[in-house]
Amino acid sequence: MSHVRKKMVAGNWKMNGNRALLEQFKQHLIVPDNTDVVLCPPAVYLANAVGSHYKVGAQNISEHEKGAHTGDISCSMLNDLAVHYVILGHSERRQDHNESNELVAQKVKCALNAGLTPIFCIGEPLEVRESGEVFAFVQAQIDAVVNICGNEFFEKAVIAYEPIWAIGTGKTASPEQAQEVHAFIRTHLSKTNSDAQKMQILYGGSVNADNAAELFAQADIDGGLIGGASLKVDDFNIICQAAG
Ligand code: PGA
Asked: What is the per-residue pLDDT across 15-43, written as a single tens digit (0 to 9) for each?
């Protein structure tokens, strides 16, 4: 049975942007009626980003509830600001901060317990793609979360498939390559929970104003997680329109 899933476009500013850029987005970002548009600026701008016509997400949280964790930000702080989403397991955090599958799973659990919606990122490096082990690799990333959060975690989460070789490289996965992995993810999760048909699965990795429409037209691609192209409001608007 096929389900109509709402599209989503999330902009991951990473460690980019400033207050002036945020003002531009507040004024000029167009949110299509039938699309969730989520802006994820650096943490210091979150308080300034909320309360507008788009949704807001953080780029990370601590796996701890509170306490002596200098520099970290808790789920309850995000709730306090009415930030509703959080990107977790992004490959840059897995690489730069040694975040393991298990740590990412703990963070997903923390976010779910706090009522935040995780945008849970998975995706393989180039050598895994070349060795033909993509499905096993992303399945291990997903199963780490299922083990800790249960097989219903995705009822309140969004998955973002982001092949590492496509992030920031200008080398996007072809629509067929992305669709193949998205279909695998949905089928894998459907085996234990039929609600996987309703889950939003985003594609990320060099999505831009020119290639978004073709990617989003694939059966199991429910929108995108956008890095570089989310820093220009005109380009980001075109991508949001492509989803709508
Ligand atoms: P990119 O980044 O669009 O710049 O490739 C995507 C991401 O890392 O989320």
From this structure: 999 999 999 999 999 999 999 999 999 99
- Give nearest CA residue, ligand 1 atom 9: 227
Q: Check if 221 has its Cβ closer than 6 Å to any atom of ligand 1.
A: no
Q: State the pLDDT at residue 1.
A: 47
Judge whether 28 counts as a catalytic residue: no
In this predicted structure, what is the pLDDT of residue 170? 86
Distance in Å, CA 194 to ligand 1 centroid: 30
- pLDDT one-digit tens code per residue, 52-76: 999 999 999 999 999 999 999 999 9
Measured CA distances, 135 to 29, 128, 145, 178 (Å): 36, 10, 16, 12
Nearest CA to ligand 1 atom 2: 227
Q: Where are the chain's structural domains?
A: 7-243
**How far apart, in whole angstroms, are the C-alpha atoms of residue 83 and residue 50?**
7
From the candidates 90, 92, 99, 182, which is the catalytic residue? Answer: 90
* Cα-Cα end-to-end distance for the chain: 22
Does the pTM surpass 0.90? The reply is yes
CATH number of the domain at 7-243, out of 3.30.1540.10, 3.90.400.10, 3.20.20.70, 3.40.640.10?
3.20.20.70
Using a 6 Å cutoff on CB, does residue 89 contact ligand 1?
no
Asked whether 226 lines ligand 1 (CB < 6 A), one says yes
